[in-house]
Amino acid sequence: MSDVFAEAPAQAAKPTIFFDGTSSRRRQVTLTFADALEILEEGGTPVRWSYADIRRADSPPGILRLACTAAPPLARLEIRDAVLAADVTVRCTHLDEHRTSRRGVARIVGWSVAATVSIVCVVLFGVPLAADRLAPLVPKPIERRIGDASEVQVKTIFGRSVCEDPAGKAAFTKLVNRLRDAAGLDDDSMTAGVLPTAVPNAFALPGGKVYVLRGLLDKAQNPDELAGILAHELGHLKHYDNMRGLIYNGGTSFLIGLLFGDVTGSSAVIFASRTVVEASYSREAETTADTFAIEIMHKLGRSPKPAFELMYRITGKEGGSTLTSILASHPLTEDRLARMTREDRPVSGPPLLTDKEWQSLKGICGSGKI
After folding, report:
1. How far is residue 62's CA from residue 85's CA, in Å, rounded to a whole number?
2. Rounded Cα gap, residues 165 and 167, in angstroms
3. What does the pLDDT look like over 52-63, one tens digit per residue?
């Protein structure tokens, strides 16, 4: 049989189609079985495929599709005639061998390991480093827009109205301004308020926004307890912890959007606002904010310890189980408590608020139940 095919082209009842792998042109060809498979196009140059190099490619039913390891990667031969396909199959003894050489396997494994190491390095070092470097460089208008969107999210969760008792609001503004001045935050656009919800928490949002929830204010026994918590939140603002967290958690897509301006789109802002509201800080960020709060309270001649006594009381009564409590986003550890004890100093400065102002602040949301 092989001698017959060696002398004459193999004719097929159905056309044989050839793609040379260098263009998308579909070529109708005939096949000749000699010492190699010859692919002949009328008026064209014959193409020779060694039988040992021919491999079966993925094929739909009714078609034998072939590739050649020595041909361009996209070269394909499509045989639609069953008899001709059987003749080819008989001659191609390595048709279904798709083994990679040891050298090829080693190369694939090597590149896979390198890719894995690269991804790990980017996640562990590249993105955090980029977050640290880029967070302070985020334009103020973008930061404020993210803060505004976050504020909407916060008010949706905790109540749309801010507590507005005039005397209480005046006392709260006085306390925040004293802390802001001591912290050296000169952002005149900074805003602060109390939201009427029983959840004990306080948080800072991008764009200079600070909120205390009534649940925390109700549990505070004196201005120093509340002031230490607020100073801690100002520390997060000072160090751009929210923006760093956004860049870190948002990963490559948010980073590209930040670099090329896509962050102004609504989807990125919504992502940012949700991330800010649900975020918890790293131990490093908490330690840095603690240091900031300690320095501010010392500068004002007040002790930072009462703030942590307040957090400890919340821990004892609630066990930190409430997702939205201050302990969810600011985990209280023994190390933090021990540090506050070490950093405690005798009071040397005037009270941050008078007794009357403190009572007004405690009543900023009115006397009704939440």
Report:
1. 10
2. 6
3. 999 998 888 889
